[in-house]
UniProtKB/TrEMBL annotation:
Residues 1-71 form the HTH merR-type domain. Keywords: Activator, Coiled coil, DNA-binding, Transcription, Transcription regulation. This is Transcriptional regulator. It comes from Streptomyces gancidicus BKS 13-15. Signal peptide: none annotated. Residues 77-104 form a coiled coil. Gene3D superfamilies: 1.10.1660.10, Antibiotic binding domain of TipA-like multidrug resistance regulators (1.10.490.50). It holds the Pfam family MerR_1.
């Protein structure tokens, strides 16, 4: 069985002139010629071409490919072992490159990747990107900010909906405790504050007790936070701040 140069080019996905060049430099000389002088390739020629293309894919220059294939001490099993080793090494390099690209993509991803419609569906009339510039200016150099950016870069609409449900449930629990007359430093209120801290750690960044108390203070010192939190119940921001502080004292004293 023999094949024309056009057939071989089609099989291998290379150009005819590439095969002509390989013939001219002695890298792949067809085993036969037709009566008209046209190149005819055998199955053995196709096997050699496969080896050539493999090494070329790995970046070997043609001279080295020829030396490898024409080595009298090499046998087919030796070539297979060498190819396996080279492929394994290349896979490792590609995996490292892919990881680096993923990190670069995360580093370039800022804010919440939702369409305007999805943002409204998840957050209602609160736009989480509204204060993005301020947030980056105040905390952009912190580990917490970088960690949060890396985590949230891959979040989907469903992830944000889950986080919003968790936040709403925490608000409901705080309000229920206020309505029941539970003081902010009660065990029940501190337990909700602890769940609040763990939710931040789970969904955004490592939130230690010192960081958590800073957030609690911001809830009452920044009127924007106070106004937003107190929509659920008047005085909720201050109640949360006090519960967060009591919980921090409970765990660090």
């Amino acid at each position: 069985m023999s094949y024309s140069v056009g057939q071989v080019a089609g099989f291998a996905g290379v150009m005819v002139r590439t095969l002509h060049h390989y013939d001219a430099i002695g890298l792949l000389v067809p085993s036969a010629r037709s009566h008209a002088g046209h190149r005819r390739y055998s199955d053995a020629d196709l096997d050699r071409l496969q080896q050539i293309l493999f090494y070329r894919e790995l970046g070997f220059p043609l001279e080295e490919v020829a030396a490898l294939l024409d080595d009298p001490a090499a046998d087919p099993r030796a070539h297979l072992r060498r190819q396996h080793e080279l492929l394994t090494a290349r896979i490792e390099r590609l995996q490292k490159m892919a990881a680096a690209v993923e990190q670069a993509m995360e580093a370039r991803t800022m804010g919440i990747n939702l369409t305007p419609e999805e943002k409204f569906e998840v957050f209602g009339d609160f736009d989480p990107d509204q204060y993005q510039e301020e947030v980056q200016e105040r905390w952009g150099d912190t580990d917490a900010y970088r960690q949060s950016q890396q985590k949230t870069a891959s979040y989907t609409k469903e992830d944000w909906q889950r986080i919003q449900r968790e936040s709403d449930e925490l608000t409901r629990r705080f309000v229920a405790l206020m309505d029941a007359g539970e003081p902010a430093d009660s065990e029940a209120a501190m337990d909700v504050a602890e769940d609040h801290r763990q939710g931040i750690t789970r969904n955004h960044y490592d939130c230690g007790y010192e960081m958590h108390t800073c957030l609690g203070e911001m809830y009452v010192n920044d009127e924007r936070f106070t106004r937003n939190i107190d929509q659920a119940k008047e005085g909720l921001a201050a109640y949360m701040r006090d519960a967060i502080l009591a919980n921090a004292v409970r765990h660090t004293a």
